[in-house]
Structures
1.
Amino acid sequence: MTIGTNVVRRKENFVEITKSYYQLTKPRIIPLLLITTAAAMWMASGGRVDPLKLLVTLVGGTLAAACAQTLNCIYDRDIDYDMLRTRARPIPSGRVQPRHALIFAIILAILSFSLLTAFVNLLSAILAMSGIGFYMLVYTHLLKRHTTQNIVIGGAAGAIPPLVGWAAVTGDLNWAAWVLFAIIFLWTPPHFWALALMIKDDYAQANVPMLPVVEGEEATGRQIWIYTLLVVPCTLLLVYPLGVAGVLYACIAVVLGGIFIRKAWQLKQAPFDKDIARSLFKYSILYLMLLCTGMVVDSLPMSDRVATVAAENLHSLLSLISS
Ligand code: HEM
Ligand SMILES: CC(C)=CCC/C(C)=C/CC/C(C)=C/COP(=O)(O)OP(=O)(O)O
């Protein structure tokens, strides 16, 4: 074997290892977590967010979320092996040793805590660490394998990122921050149960008591419907009584919420239809993304003018979106 071949092999190995550690962090979920953090920062600062603080908070948040996901991959390696969707993950497929993953997770946590403490504030750092703790201890360890309410209570972990964002700007948490928390908290059941309806058999095979496995499709459809009916009015609390968002955000929240409710209703009527479940799951992601974008746009100084134009064209906007 030539020296050249050795160098190429080593390079390929390095790329493979890097890819495996990247996959441990479940990177596809992190951008939306960051969008909720950024939206909270924008709202908390009244549209005048410090770009450097935004960047550092998002990097700190990314490191914390990556740590949480890596720890989850270590803890859940047995059930990840049992499920088709997760079998190829780095630990069940044998590409990363659990103890190496643990070292990686510890490094991520230390980096996140240090960065947030040094350049943002202690409260945001503590909140990020509590997100990791809650996700691991409450969701992954205590609830995931034991109750159908796992993602309802455990979902609180995913609702912590906007608290991190709010705390990063103001140094404390007020009612608006807790409403942002409540929005993600109530959004999680429709988001996840729609997916769980699609991959129910996988969860059944791994003995994970997700709602569709234990109580069936109809009960899940009803629960999704209830949480969707709760989340939409909750998004409007930011407008009234809190007054931290304006007319433009209200219009966006009503339109997006109306579509969310319509899709949840369709699923309630046909809970066995996997296409409708898929459509709701995908929409849940788009919904949160656009709602957060709405919060950002609304907080910008020119939003009053945009609100007037939007109100004038609301009717054509509605027919465009629903077509
Ligand atoms: C306990 C709460 C939650 C559970 C159990 C859950 C579960 C899941 C699962 C199992 C997937 C499929 C992932 C895959 O196969 O790769 C998924 C996808 C996704 N989740 Fe969640 N989720 C939760 C909360 C959240 C939160 C809070 C966010 C962000 C705010 C989020 C954002 C996403 C996104 C963006 C995807 C799509 C990833 C892709 O493009 O494949 N999830 N979720
Ligand atoms: C501030 C901070 C760091 C908060 C933590 C936020 C966080 C990591 C939320 C993750 C939510 C999520 C995608 C859960 C899926 O877990 P699962 O184990 O059910 O998914 P799986 O079946 O794909 O393994």
2.
Amino acid sequence: MKRKPVIIGVTGGSGSGKTSVTKSICDKFSDKTILVIEQDYYYKDQSHLPFEERLKTNYDHPLAFDNDLLIEHLHDLLDNKSINKPVYDYKLHTRSNKTIFVEPKDVIIIEGILILDDQRLLNLMDIKVFVDTDPDLRMIRRLRRDIKERGRSLDSVIEQYLTEVRPSHLQFIEPTKRYADIIIPEGGENHVAIDLMASKIENILSKKHENNK
Ligand SMILES: Nc1ncnc2c1ncn2[C@@H]1O[C@H](COP(=O)(O)OP(=O)(O)O)[C@@H](O)[C@H]1O
Ligand SMILES: Nc1ccn([C@@H]2O[C@H](COP(=O)(O)O)[C@@H](O)[C@H]2O)c(=O)n1
């Protein structure tokens, strides 16, 4: 019988370097080994709402996410079933019509700001990582990225940061650090931490293969 995939959670504030850390870890393995599931792709579908209404959503609040669907998909992957992963459009603030057909892999990394805030998600994770980066650096990185890649203006990024991102970070995200097994300062450029994570994953995989013999 095929063994269940291992689930690793990678969390941290917006702009902390979650995506960069996840990519650096994935780059050390073949494409067949690690599947990445982004919690952002599981923001609630808002296609029924006019664009102006979508702008009013607080995207840093736990209620913005469709964790039920995320959990259903993780259970499917744990049962070695494929899923149709949603695709999210940050410019339109809703899911796209497209989905991506993905098959389970030995290791699943679930990456997102609020993955440790839901007990059901916590229960599914074998390893929990918190990427810990100072707020000023996170804000600068977010500012650059959101203007370049997410179709935002300088003023809108600052306004959203002050009214939603910062308060929600302090209320919901920062407290989840206590559930992490590993805290990685600074994120994507922390090569020591990334190498340690890669060694741990290699160790898990070799044990899995031993048990499969
Ligand atoms: N160590 C770093 N130094 C400079 N820029 C970085 C660093 N890590 C990430 N970035 C940049 O900051 C932005 C946010 O990083 P990202 O990994 O997407 O964070 P998150 O997924 O936590 O929001 C991206 O544009 C990324 O290229
Ligand atoms: N329509 C949306 C959806 C999300 N956001 C912001 O994205 C952040 C999470 O993504 P990271 O890659 O930065 O972790 C979150 O802080 C939301 O504010 C958005 O601006 N618009």
